[in-house]
Design goal:
2 copies of one chain form a homodimer.
Chain A lengths: L5 H12 L3 H15 L3 E7 L5 E5 L3 H9 L7 H7 L5 E2 L8 H12 L5 E8 L5 E8 L3 H29 L13 H11 L4 H7 L4 H15 L4 H10 L6
Antiparallel strand pairs in A: 1-2, 1-5, 3-4, 4-5
Chain B binds a DNA duplex through helix 7 and helix 9.
DNA sequence: TTTCCACTCCCCAGATATAGCGAGGGCAAC
DNA sequence: GTTGCCCTCGCTATATCTGGGGAGTGGAAA
């Protein structure tokens, strides 16, 4: 547990003082050695498929993952996106053919059979994963995750805190939040209403509604209504 | 620190076994006594304005907060919504007239002058706050928050985990999967491309694309394209 | 006080999406 | 070897959305 482990303390101090991605990389390697696991990875899953991370997976696997756009079929990402609590890979849905194929390929690149991933969310819909990976039997893995669950949650938190520090454009608190009416409009559009229906629901003319949509589109830097709704959702401005 | 404190351990065990909001309420009272602070509050902030929570603020203050819709002006909520890391209330922006008025009123209801709040985010844009509040001088408060920062992050995490358990409709994760092409289509639409652009990107005719969109709409039970994209996003089928 | 911003309303034309038909090849599972 | 799903292509007409203008109110901040 934290506080009872001098070595872990010093590693976390190093993380807090890291000021580059390389620094985080070193910390993940140190943590991997500390916990005696095969891999330890922080993975930022960003919009538009831009994603980065740091960790101990091989470069070859990272390249493969990105080039094959595995994020779209990775059950770990899919599963964590729906959850709040950390999840053991065994509890995910590996039934689809693509998922099994993905698993098989990952093993070829040195990814272990056991995994434990923690979803992390930041402002504006930011989403990331913190994963510990190992090769061992179920009993051993269960013991490990139960013993270290709390540590891992905290470490995940600290990794994300660092990653957000590095990310430009995240810190300047973009105050381009939507007005109440704009949020109403975006919300109802996301619920599938047509403009006429939305206007009716809000008891305003369709013309007025259009101004809100355009205004929201402008604020969100969106190219069209669908884009605006998508951005509003991913930034957590509306909930559907 | 966790793991070095038997009393805190037992309180957290009680939290893990809580199965009602009242149970969480009791835990927050126990934690307040444990940390010897004035208040300790978990506050679920829903976009629709539906909000609930549990904690040790007086009923009168909670009623006042809800009836006055303070969530819209509360600098703690506003500030935490843009941040990832825990934040001391002193670092928030209290400059607006509404904020100062709010602060003055809160003091009348027994809210202390010092506060430390942790933002928490779950799937589908869920957002909550975990706050510790006290009446003391700055030095004492800084010492307290620095010493207990890690504990508080973890406790916040556990509170939210419980709250999500209680929330109906959050658990059922239905996986109606889209085909790869449908996911491509939905993703590109969410990125703001028009149908013509999407068709071009995928190197297919616009007619074919339309079939995918319709098929995805059908699978998602969506009324139109925007709705389909919104549903695909909130179900984590596409990552934008 | 003035300046900003949110909110409300109006017209019109062109671009885009939706809805209705239908058709064939490939691949996998039952 | 039939059934079902995925991928691909076509046409046409109507509904809806987008983009270009302009205009007035009220409230809150500088």
């Amino acid at each position: 547990m934290l506080g009872t482990d001098k070595q872990l303390e010093s590693i976390l101090s190093a993380l807090e003082q890291a000021d580059t991605l390389d620094g985080m990389q070193s910390v993940s390697e140190a943590l991997r050695d500390h916990y005696k696991v095969d891999h330890l990875v922080y993975h930022w899953v960003d919009s538009a498929g831009d994603q980065y991370g740091c960790g101990t997976y091989s470069d070859a696997w990272q390249d493969q993952y990105l080039s094959q756009n595995y994020v779209r079929i990775d059950p770990v990402v899919q599963g964590c996106y729906q959850r709040f609590h950390p999840v053991d890979w065994k509890r995910l849905d590996w039934s689809s053919k693509a998922a099994r194929e993905f698993l098989r390929t990952s093993a070829e690149y040195g990814v272990g059979n056991q995994g434990y991933s923690i979803p992390i969310r930041g402002p504006n819909g930011q989403f990331a994963l913190f994963t510990v990976n190992h090769n061992c039997d179920d009993a051993e893995w269960t013991k490990f995750t139960e013993e270290n669950r709390r540590d891992l949650i905290l470490i995940a938190h600290y990794f994300n805190e660092k990653a957000l520090e590095f990310e430009p454009g995240r810190q300047p608190i973009q105050q381009s939040s939507l007005s109440p009416r704009e949020i109403d409009a975006m919300t109802l559009l996301a619920m599938g209403y047509s403009r006429a229906q939305v206007a009716n629901s809000l008891s305003i003319s369709e013309h007025t509604l259009r101004v809100y949509i355009e205004s929201a589109r402008f604020k969100l830097g969106a190219l069209n209504t669908t884009h605006a709704v998508a951005r509003a959702m991913s930034r957590g401005l509306i909930v559907v």
